[in-house]
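Sequence and structure are no longer studied apart. As an example, we show below a sequence and the tokens encoding its fold:
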Amino acid sequence: MQKNYFVIFLLLLITSCASVRKHNEQQTACIPPEKLREDVDFAYSKIKEMHPDLYLYISKQDLDKKFDSVKTTIQDPLTPLQFYFKLQPVISDIREGHLSLRIPSKRITKKEIKDLENKKGMFSRFEYYIKDNRLFIIGNKDSIENIKPGTEIISIDHVSVSYYTKRYRKLISSDGFNTTFAPYFLKDLFFSYYVAEKGYENRATIETLYNGKKKEYNLTRESKSKADLKRDKENKKLTKEKKINDYIAFNDSYNRNFRFLDKDSTIAYIKVKSFSGDYSAKFYKNAFEKIKNTEASYLIIDVRNNYGGSLEEIHKLYSYLTSEPYILIKPSQVNSATTPLKTNYFRKSNLLQYTFKTFTYPAFFFAQTFSTYKKDGKFYYKIKADKPAKPDKNSFKGKIFVLINGASFSASSILTSKLKNDKKAILVGEETGGANDGTVAGFYSYQILPNSKIDLPIGLVLVQPDIDFTHTKKGVLPDVVIKETMEDIIHKKDPQLDWILTEIKNEKAKNKKYLMH
């Protein structure tokens, strides 16, 4: 038996190494133009076949023209990466934030991964801010080269940063016509794009500008100390608290946070960085029990910089924010009865996983086959959140404020759109990056372009909050518009939260004065 396990392990190892080598060879190979034009047609045909609301933000005529136009520009052989930079801007013009090609890049071996784990990041150790086409460092917790927050990076290895920002901005689309999403997403993905183009380099020269003075720095990928490696190991140990608050080992922080903002426990504050779904039910149960026990009058929910995630989690959260029965989303449309079967059940399965999934496939097939229904000539996917639901017994009865910004996307926008429509909360901040009237996501069909081998995940489900639609084709608009500047972030000021706290203070004073009379 042990011998069999060893043979299987050896086969997996050999297959993995060969797979990495083959993949990397594909990344450098130039593909004939006629084959690339086939990939354009394949991508568009699959999007039309599966996307349930394709022409919401662009007409069929205009989109047809864009896909035809990009084909005419392909006259020479291109690598997959070069082809990606031609096709992705067309897909981003569809203006569906969840619909995007995966940028092709070289894979690294397990040995290279281990080597990187033993080194500190080079660019990832800074925090960034993008304004127009300019890139600023706003956080340097390790004091690398003593670079000050507010320093602008002008060039990387003598290539202008504006060249990269203009190049990468074309790859990004939000839901609809809002303008708030791109700066947040671009600053988060800038170096992911950069590494996809350049690879994992061990050094880079950056030219900077601070207080009118230019300076060059040579960044290197330093080895971690024994203390760093020990801390990494300790951070990976999941305690009960870490699990419930959804601990993120990468940056030693928590996905969810709950606390009171005043000594009298009248102002409760919940911050959610991502609706991951992990241990969320336990977190909200504990938080709202504490809120009820302290009889807090105000609740602030912070979903700034929350790109979304689990529909199940926002469904649970909403049950604590209303005192009446509710329906979170409208029935979710799909293109056909067979759409749920297009989710690539065997995707990314190794030999053992493939064998296991082969046995479980009949159950998957049966469940997905009966997961749709037809009504008025359209097909819908059965989701628990589109059924009437009751508020939780510990639902909050006080005043709710919600903090939003351009990086509040997907599930964050579904939640805040519903809260605003139902007049359950006052929204403070800036327009969300996700659409007010819904988005296409749910689950995906992972297509692979046949010649360039680029991944194309396509969202299959139209998810819309149960609201009266605004038809603005934009994000969720705040009730109170307050912008956050780079200087606010650097100096750890929070004008959006401060406005809420001032509003609560004034309301408390007014109520106290009223009671005295």
Notes: The domain at 240-512 is CATH 3.90.226.10 (2-enoyl-CoA Hydratase; Chain A, domain 1). The chain is about 40% helix and 20% strand. The first strand starts at residue 127 and ends at 131.
